[in-house]
Amino acid sequence: MMDGGMEIAFFGPGLFPAYRNGVLSYYRGIIRALHERGHRITFYEPGTMTSRSIGSRSNGPEWAAVLVYPPNEEGARHALKMAREADILIKVSCGVLGSAGRLDTWFEEAMLTARKGGARAVFWDVDAQATLERLRRNGKDPFRRLVPEYDYILTYGGGTPVIKGYRELGAKTCVPIYNALDPLMHYPAPCEKRFRADMSFLGNRMPDMEDRMEEFYLHPARMLKRKSFVLGGAGWEGRAKPPNVRYVGNVRPCEQNAFNCSAKTALNVCDGSAALAGYMPPESIFEAAGAGACIITDNWEGIKLFFEPGREILVARDGGAVAEIISSLDQDDAREIGQAALCKVLAQHTYAHRAAQFEMVFG
User: Fold this and answer.
1) CATH number for position 326
2) Domain count of the chain?
3) Which distant-in-sequence residues (6+ apart) come within 8 Å of 238 by Cβ?
């Protein structure tokens, strides 16, 4: 922990939406870990047009003060004034998170002028590949000239390509901070009979997941008619499935640990866009590792930064390779790989580690 801790002001969308959102789980994990290390965090979020007053306090968690402001320029300006004593001002990129991003352009510039004394301004980009592509296409994008003015650019992963992209735009410092395991939420649980299988997959049905699902899950299931498969997540009811695939529907958060560790192996695949972007481990891979699952994953760039293939995770180039792994892997080896993955994430990839990295960035 840094002596005395820091005052950190986050400006972004609400921390607790009604729907599951991996990006917000990422911010919650990091913010809570920063709080545990002695830093004081205030999260400023836009409310509704009927918000009672600027700076009204919502029922936030114990690890962050949450202050709500009306979603207009006047409300945002007053929110920035309230944060003027912060050591670090952080603008969360919101464009991928819905209507909360409509003040993005205003905030991106106002954040820079709100710095007082030695305060530092940070832009934390949750979709850096998309941002960089937008800036490359449009030389007159307002954010392009602001990039060199920020003290730090932090990103939701992305690796060397993202660092290079931001550096080419004049960024002083660009540091990827990846998602991680929250060990309070994801841990080994007793196996449950209804989730037992040779391979499980947990994920909601999304358009950019259809082809990956077909190749890495349904294709192996059709090849291995004598093996059992369990499928969890919303939206798969109408999807044609082989007889050896057992669909259990939506899996509640309190059931996810048991789901991940009850089958011999747990499949984890990136969606189409993430697979192309690379260097972006999905949060689900850390959740499964935290439960001690033997993970089979598709091959994505940068995986060796997080797990050792063959010892801590099994990597498959296509559905045929998945079928080969399932056919040849015995239960003892699967258990050993799952334990190695659990040890790795606890030793190197929890949100406490990401919070320590954040501290290192700031001195």
Assistant:
1) 3.40.50.2000
2) 2
3) none
CATH of residue 147: 3.40.50.11010
Pairwise CA distance, residues 132 & 30, whole Å: 24
Stated pTM of the model:
0.90
Q: Does 233 have pLDDT greater than 80? A: yes
Summarize pLDDT for 163-203 with one digit per residue, the tens. 999 999 999 999 999 999 999 999 999 999 999 999 999 99
354, 34, 63: which is closest to 180 by C-alpha? 354
| Euclidean distance between CA atoms 57 and 212, whole angstroms | 43
Distance separating alpha carbons of residues 245 and 263, to the nearest angstrom: 13
Which domain covers residue 140, as residue numbers?
7-177
Burial of 78 (0-12, 13-18, 19+ CB in 10 A): middle
More confident residue, 295 or 13: 295
Residue entry with tokens 């799952």: 338
Q: Are 94 and 104 spatial neighbours (Cβ–Cβ below 8 Å)?
A: yes
User: Residue 318: how many CB atoms within 10 A of its CB?
Assistant: 14
